[in-house]
């Protein structure tokens, strides 16, 4: 089949694009534009940052948290007073940088 002249339009209609008549994306699985707002108060931007020492991620690095607790049980340099562990406290190099740069941003 040749793609010149009148044959190109017929070839496109017979090809994969022939099933895509609806190009405005107004039908099918696309979300409805008539959505109601969510119930309850807006909570974004309130409370503690997840990176704060008391936040969802930051609290894991405390000596009784999931990550910090494991390091405490191993001990040695990973202990909260050890050469590596003390870097992850709020006053340490890594923990302090997280508190200054990420924990204060909501």
What would you note in describing this structure?
With 106 residues, this protein is mostly helical. The longest helix is centred in the last third of the chain and has 11 residues. The radius of gyration is 29 Å and the shape is elongated. It starts with 6 loop residues before the first helix and ends with a helix. The model has no long low-confidence stretch (mean pLDDT 75).
The helix content, as a percent range, equals: 25-40%
DSSP strand count: 0
- Fraction of residues in β-strands: under 5%
> Over the alpha carbons, how many angstroms does the gyration radius reach?
29 Å
Beginning-to-end CA distance, first to last residue: 61 Å
The biggest beta sheet reads: none
Uncertain segments: none
Q: What number is the mean pLDDT? A: 75
Structural class: mainly alpha
Number of DSSP helical runs: 3
Question: How do the SSEs run, as a string of H and E?
Answer: HHH
Which term fits the overall shape?
elongated
């Amino acid at each position: 089949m040749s793609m010149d002249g009148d044959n190109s339009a017929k070839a496109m209609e017979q090809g994969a694009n022939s099933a895509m008549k609806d190009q405005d994306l107004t039908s099918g699985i696309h979300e409805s534009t008539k959505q109601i707002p969510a119930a309850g108060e807006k909570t974004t931007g309130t409370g503690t940052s997840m990176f704060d020492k008391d936040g969802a991620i930051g609290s894991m690095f405390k000596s009784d948290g999931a990550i910090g607790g494991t390091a405490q049980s191993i001990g040695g340099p990973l202990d909260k007073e050890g050469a590596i562990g003390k870097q992850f406290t709020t006053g340490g190099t890594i923990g302090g940088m997280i508190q200054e740069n990420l924990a204060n941003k909501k």
